[in-house]
Write the structure tokens for this entry.
Amino acid sequence: MSKRTYWQDNLRLVALCLVIWFGVSFVCGILLLDFLNQFEIAGFKLGFWFAQQGSIYVFVALIFFYAWRMSAIDKRHNVEED
Amino acid sequence: MDLQTLTYIVVGASFALYIGIAFWSKARTTGEFYVAGKHVHPLANGMATAADWMSAASFISLAGLIAFLGYDGSVYLMGWTGGYVLLALLLAPYLRKFGKFTVPEFIGDRYVSQTARVVAVICLLVISFTYVAGQMRGVGIVFSRFLSVDITVGLIIGMAVVFFYAVLGGMKGITYTQVAQYCVLIFAYTVPAVFISLQVTDTLVPQIAFGSTVVDGGGFLLEKLDQIVTDLGFAAYTSGTKSSIDVFFITLALMIGTAGLPHVIVRFFTVPKVRDARISAGYALFFIALLYTTAPAVGALARLNLTETIQTGPVGSADGNLPYEDRPEWFKTWEGTGLLTFDDKNDDGRIQYYNDANAEFTATADSYGWQGNELSVDRDIIVLANPEIAGLPNWVVALVAAGGIAAALSTAAGLLLVISAAVSHDLLKSTFVRDISQKRELLAGRISAAVAILLAGYLGYNPPGFVAQVVALAFGLAAASLFPVILLGIFSYRINKQGAIAGMLTGLGFTVGYIIYFKGVFVAPFAENIAENWLFGISPEGIGAVGAILNFHVAIIVSALTPAPPVEVKELVERIRIPCGVNVEQN
């Protein structure tokens, strides 16, 4: 039973992270490029910024966030190593 | 001290360092040879992964590629970093828990099939050899350009160094040399980047300089760049020319391909725990991002710098272009290498650099008295000549040479290791000589690494004409063949060997077929490689993503029509999904 809820918690977290992953790169950096490029912040057109800078920063943060949340989920379900 | 001597000293010192590390970390068991005994600290593994991943192409070509592509270059930035998110969330922790040595081994065990394992080995060998040929070539080029030795001599020196630490140290040696190589390459990349951002925008951090105002007035860097390149008939820097769907699929193919590259995946087998594999992917991407967020800044700064060097006054004015006689010193140096060439088409003694392929701009150019673009610039110059363009001291130029070599060697070594592991472990031990002793397997691993180096050296010396075309193939293959079956193997109990094999072969066949159809490998292309002919407007570079989608569907449908896998498979999948529990180690 615990195994199943552990896996579902994991899947939910993975899904959330993948939505963000898709959002910053494919949506903001590619599909909405022209729309977001109308806005200019700190010398960058916004869509261009997502494509060449923003998405990469978010990717890094996202992996650390996932690792942090997964450690907590491991602990809650008592499946951590050692 | 002259540049030549200084470069010899810096490059020589870096080689001495790598060889010293190789002695210190000699592999004694197959576990150490294949996965560094699984004792690598996640932070060290992060650095090693970054060096493993960032090749000569990332170091030498990326910034230049973006400088000339502008927004279209974003596919490489997002594609080659976003793959790590997939790797960290979907593959690395589970494969670490699986706890064995190679990627084909996972596929063989999960699908209880030697056939599946051999198909995976074939994919791995094609991907890795494609890649490694380019690296050895990169080593030779850097040597010949900075040390004025023959490309062949440079190649042999590079092979000898890799031979030493990869054959002797195996994964253990490679890991710690890659840590050193990362430090060398990121330092060498950052120093000139900082100087050029200071020069153009008076800002220290390139990522911030990218969005700053330029020192000579004229507003924000990117606005000014958009202005001047469109005045010269090029596409605006921040909007690009590729269709959205093509950009989308190329990015997706590069991401999935990155996550499916065996030499990257295997790095996550070397850390002690599942938790370490997750966090290590974060460190790896952080270290990669240091270069990958600097590169677009360098690209934009250098494009502006270069354009303004040539276009000294208003576009179209009689004396707005640099007279050839007044060209700067670095211009002359790089003319000597053939990477920069000038052809005075209108005989006015001045250099015109504009987009003569733009039909709408022709009339304007005619009215200026321009008769064609007179300057051709190789994209690699952006990084290689940057220190000279920015007027930096010789030691920085020497450092860039050492950095370029470090980037190429570290990637080559990682690739050679997965090749040798696939041969000695997946083919020899598990398929042909099952009762081989550990000592003999280790020897076999070393011999296959040595043979792989010779073959890679040969390919680097004598690159088959299709090397440039097959870079798309390496990523397309990794995306369309390996990634889907590894992912399904973890996230589904139901996928069986029939599904996996059918999926891999479909993805492989479709992707290879599409690329050959438009680019031609060994045969002439069947159709012109233009957007009108492409399937849904997707170029061969992006087709790996479609191959992956096909692979997923075929695997799921075929599995549903054939019997479920045996009960041990369910136990295996349950075991790898949970971090705790006994790690079944081989041997």
Remarks:
- Residues 83 and 258 of chain B are 5 Å apart (CA to CA).
- Chain B has a mean pLDDT of 86.
- Residues 151-201 of chain B form the longest helix (51 residues).
- Chain B touches chain A through 49 residues (CB under 8 Å).
